[in-house]
Fold this sequence. Notes:
The chain folds into two domains: 2-152, VC0802-like, CATH 3.30.2130.30; 174-212 and 247-376, Rossmann fold (3-Layer(aba) Sandwich), CATH 3.40.50. The chain has ten helices and 15 strands. It has helices at 12-21, 40-49, 68-76, 104-123, 174-184, 201-211, 232-244, 260-272, 316-330, 343-352; strands at 2-6, 25-30, 33-37, 55-64, 89-97, 128-129, 136-143, 146-152, 191-194, 252-257, 279-283, 299-302, 335-340, 356-365, 368-376. An eight-stranded mixed β-sheet has the order 2-3-1-4-8-7-5-6. A hairpin with a 2-residue loop joins strand 7 and strand 8. Helix 2 (40-49) crosses helix 7 (232-244). The mean pLDDT is 96. Bound molecules: S-adenosylmethionine (SAM). S-adenosylmethionine binds next to helix 6 and strand 10.
Amino acid sequence: MKYFATVPLGIEGVAAEEVREVGASSVTSDVGKVFYEGDLRLMYLSNFMLRTVNRVFILILRERFKDLNDIGRLARSLTYSDFIKENMSFAVRAERYGEHDFTSIDVKRVVGAAVIESYMGEKGHRLKVNLDNPDVEFFVLVRNDEVIMGINTTGRSLHKRGYRVYNHPAALKTTLAAAMVRLSQLKEGDALLDPMCGGATILIEAVHKLRRYPLIMFRSDFTFRKLLIHDEWLEAEVAEELLEKILFTQHVVTGIDVSPKALEGAMKNLRAGFVDDTIKLLVGDAARTESYEGVPATVIVTNPPYGMRSHNIKKIPKFYKEFLRILSDLYPGATLVAITASHKALEEALNTVSASVLRKLDVMHGGLNAVIFVARI
Ligand SMILES: C[S@@+](CC[C@H](N)C(=O)[O-])C[C@H]1O[C@@H](n2cnc3c(N)ncnc32)[C@H](O)[C@@H]1O
């Protein structure tokens, strides 16, 4: 089977590596997507294990097209009865990027009509459309002269993990946090620190990875259950295998934040994420040496304030220099992974402490252009 996963912009390479790790073959990445191949088991594994992707789709079409009519023709040429039963409803979602003389609404209309026509030709039955709660959701992505069509096996995006009971006002997307943890190359035995941890997203994602917690521990509303190809025995087998692989290991993981309210919320998230037994939270100012007393760190992964919302933007360069100076004094040789939209300020601060920047990834976060830095301090 052919699959593709949608991925936050900028972390496609990291996601491709994760997709390879779950056993996929022919893995290639593209803007905001990773394409891959594998068997039906992989549909379950992808939804239960991939921490850096949004949704997993069965790829049913990937072609070049000339115009809107051509998209309709390509969509009509597909066989839908392998995926959808007569009594089921469907919806078409569409996204469009590039210059075209049609809109994404036109794409939805044309592809919707093509699905109905093709099914009618095959089965003599007119499928019903249900835009709010469809049994099967087709996703059409038009980018320049390429059209990609897939069947959503996930439902709500996988970045909605289910453990986030407290929503920090500047919370980091779980998928980006998971990508940062991968970029840090965190492994068993490392001491992890997030000195501005907020609701603790990064720390939770890190421990989930180390302990191999499958995503099904926290949510189970996957839309693959409605598809004709769904095999509930296979799903149960995959889920059981993953649950058996969980490691209840202890880790040295510390979160610091200046806001007691954020830490109160973080504690709720730790409990909901079953990691409160191994993550320590401390109230402290990241720009003061005494906040780190007794805190070990070999890997630092953090999402400092950008200065867009809560912090005065003018104070950010000074603040970044202060906390980096302390981190490089206390933890020389540590790996630092940090995400910020104030990237010039962070780059300058990294230069000031003579850190070596190993990688820089341009990503989008909350509608802002942000950069993930990977550095040795
Ligand atoms: C962008 S938020 C982090 C959000 C977090 N990654 C999450 O997903 O919930 C930045 C955090 O830095 C904290 N902060 C701001 N200034 C600080 C300082 N001087 N020392 C420690 N924490 C600070 C804020 O309270 C806020 O929780």
